[in-house]
Amino acid sequence: MIPLIGKDAFAAWAAVAKLIHNYAGPVFGVTLVLLLLMLLPHNIPNGNDVRWFLKGGGLLSKNSHPPAGRMNGGEKAWYWLLATVGVAVIVTGGVMIFILDLTREQSQIALTVHAISSLIITAVALGHIYIGTAGTEGSLEGMTTGKVDLNWARQHHDLRVEDLQRKGQAESLTRRPIAGFPPARTPGLRRAFFSVIRCCVRRCLSRGLQQDPRVPAAHAAIDLGDGSRAPRRRNPRSRVDRDRPA
Predict the structure, then answer these.
(1) Which of 240 and 37 is assigned the larger pLDDT?
(2) Are the beta carbons of 32 and 246 closer than 8 angstroms?
(3) Predicted pLDDT of residue 205
(4) Cα–Cα distance measured from residue 239 to residue 245, given in angstroms and rounded to the nearest whole number
(5) How many whole angstroms separate alpha carbon 52 and alpha carbon 117?
(6) Which residues contact 60 (CB under 8 A, 6 or more apart)?
(7) Do residues 18 and 209 touch, judged by C-beta distance below 8 A?
(8) CB atoms within 10 A of CB 90
(9) Count of CA atoms in the C-beta half-sphere (13 A) of 40
(10) How confident is the model at residue 181, as a pLDDT?
């Protein structure tokens, strides 16, 4: 970005982006852990998931979808990717933020794992977003309203519909949700999830984007000797900079 916006603009943007990242990271970590706990009972692999993958999620068969319950094989694979690679992002990020006595080698290992894990999650998330919006008709409406058409549910989550029919709950779209959470009171973990989100947002808004007075400006520049200037990281929490020989 430096050739496009210049060194000073990039240094200012990097300072703001770093601050946003440091506040958004813990929010991501807490919310992901809560979501994983909430959805764990619905993401236990079984034989139906194997058949789902053998048929390519319906892409390898015409006019038919493999059997699926509340979560299909692809959704379960995304869940367990978040439960492994996503947790690696949380752990390494927490190590770099809260542990101040890491050696340079330890910092480099944590940073490398954090970066690679983040890239994996981002790449798969982009594909997942496409499939959940433009790639599958009816999915976006299901996420935004919490409800799906009964025919859509039978096509994509037939085992879930059969289970709801046995319980007498498989009603039409206009009366109650079919494949999503019912619009009832938010209990247990879901209530804690939204409470944590509200608290984190209030805290971030209350502090704003003010620079910590104990930390010198992150966009301070140094002379490179050729008449140009480049941003210099002077944050005392940076283990890599702190351990670099003078």
Answers:
(1) 37
(2) no
(3) 55
(4) 12
(5) 26
(6) none
(7) no
(8) 18
(9) 8
(10) 41
Task: Please name the residue ranges forming H helices in the chain.
Answer: 2-5, 7-39, 47-54, 73-81, 87-98, 104-132, 139-145, 150-156, 158-166, 188-207, 239-243
Does residue 57 come out as left (phi exceeding 0), alpha (psi in the -120 to 50 range) or beta? left
CA angle 70, 66, 84 (to 5 degrees): 55
Contact 155, 72 (CB under 8 A): no
The residues with which 222 forms a beta bridge, in sequence order, are 230
Mean predicted confidence (pLDDT) in 35-51:
90
Read off the pLDDT of each residue in 27-40 and give the average, rounded to a whole number.
93
Which residue, among 40, 37, 48, has the nearest Cα to 72 in the 3D structure? 48
Q: What are phi and psi of 231, to 5 degrees?
A: -65, 145
| Number of neighbours of residue 187 by Cβ within 10 angstroms | 8
Evaluate whether 187 touches 102 at the Cβ level (below 8 Å).
no
**What is the average per-residue pLDDT within 198-219?**
53
Q: Residue 175 is encoded by which pair of tokens?
A: 């009366």
- Give residue 183's pLDDT: 42
